[in-house]
Amino acid sequence: MNHFDYIDGRLHAEGVALDDIAAHVGTPFYCYSTATLARHYTVFAGALAKAGLDATVCFALKANPNIAVVRTLAELGAGADVVSEGELRQALAAGVPPGRIVFSGVGKTRRELEFAVAKGIMQINVESEPELHALSEIAAARGVRMPIALRVNPDVDAGTHAKITTGKKENKFGIEWTRAHEVYRKANALPGIEVVGVACHIGSQLTEVEPFRQAFLRVRDLVAMLRADGIGIRRLDLGGGLGVPYEYETPPHPDLYAEAIRATLGDLGCRIVLEPGRLLVGNAGIMVSRVIYVKEGATRTFVIVDAAMNDLMRPALYDAHHAIEPVLQPAPDAVPVAVDVVGPVCETGDTFARQRLLPPLRAGDLIAFRTAGAYGAAMSSTYNSRPLIPEILVKDKAYAVVRARPSYEEMLALESLPDWFG
Ligand code: LLP
């Protein structure tokens, strides 16, 4: 469920008409809805509570690190899952307490580890032995033991897109399942390390519960082994990954997911940490763009819009589907036509939709790309020297620009000519 609906023929975000925002901030832009963020958080956290789980929901900032979005979720009780010093700084700037932040990622630098240890965050999810040793050294030098989980790779097939599956043994993530016990023993003996948990994340945009269940059962076996060995495990970080509907998908309701956690791990007496990203923010965001031209090609019609693959990369990168709707509601008798919706970037990959049935569109019309709140702005770039597009947060009848569009002067100011050019 989301709060982007037509009211009197104009697509609104909650109580704000999107064409009004377009008139003020220009296009393209991202727009997020506070009520939708709140709704998704409440349904997810509510499902965990109903299942009787003692759980902390750490929003995966990689899906949408805008500090206003993070703050909205933090005020509802969310912590943060971060994967870089940049995201850690965003979580802190948004007001997430350090005691609710986990730091994941396969290649944390020493500088990043030092920053995280200095900030006293809840937990670092360690992904390799070299990282374990580096972290122990860093923490011991500060006279502390850093709480850690080892991210284990449970070798299950998440059945999702190859580029976003992470839990198979050939993926770069985590510590191989078969070696986990041995690495835990080593970790437990290191001076700067306090082993507190097990972490796993098997992939993103999962639309079935079964792969999760398989991974959780493996985690359960590991906890039993570790406890038998005297290694105290009191937290289980089960990652993110629950999918959202983009087109025809029917991902399981969070109640079923929570029930799978309860059934497999609920009796272990552990605090459960979850790292959902897409589920919390995906449907809470749209991208609005304006049609520049409609071009009749030899075999098809191209709707050329002012957003491009650099602004929303998912269609080009994963062949992802984003529903497209005109911002002004089409007449009920408008006959849809098949068009290709493309951006201005000089690559064929800069195509948002091929042969999509849409009501007739003309130059100047506004369109909205739905389900763009996750991995939309977060993955954008300035390819073709296009400025990053602004982000807007709506709350009821109010809206605010929560990331400004940089000016060309600001973009150029980061570059310089070496003095050998005279
Ligand atoms: N935790 C870890 C360790 C992760 O690697 C990820 C996502 C998450 C949590 C959050 O997963 P989520 O709940 O959002 O599925 N750019 C891709 C998605 C990449 C996901 C990477 N890891 C896309 O646009 O579909």
Describe the structure in your own words.
- α5 (110-119) crosses α6 (129-141).
- 29% of the residues lie in helices and 25% in strands.
- The chain contains twelve helices and 21 strands.
- The protein is α/β, with parallel strands linked by helices.
- The chain is globular and about 70 Å long.
- The protein starts with a strand and ends in a 9-residue tail after the last helix.
- A hairpin with a 2-residue loop joins β2 (10-13) and β3 (16-17).
- It has helices spanning 18-25, 34-50, 67-75, 85-93, 110-119, 129-141, 180-188, 210-228, 254-265, 278-281, 314-318, 408-413; strands at 4-7, 10-13, 16-17, 29-33, 55-60, 79-82, 101-103, 123-126, 146-153, 175-176, 193-199, 235-237, 271-274, 285-296, 301-305, 324-326, 337-342, 351-358, 366-369, 391-395, 398-403.
- The mean pLDDT is 96.
- It folds into two domains: 4-32 and 282-412, Lyase, Ornithine Decarboxylase, Chain A, domain 1, CATH 2.40.37.10; 34-278, Alanine racemase (TIM Barrel), CATH 3.20.20.10.
- Strands 4, 14, 15, 16, 17, 18, 19, 20 and 21 form a nine-stranded mixed beta sheet that branches.
List the bound ligands.
Answer: ligand LLP
Instruction: Return the average pLDDT rounded to an integer.
Output: 96
Q: Which stretches are poorly predicted, pLDDT < 50 over at least 5 residues? A: none
Name given to the CATH architecture of the largest domain:
Alpha-Beta Barrel
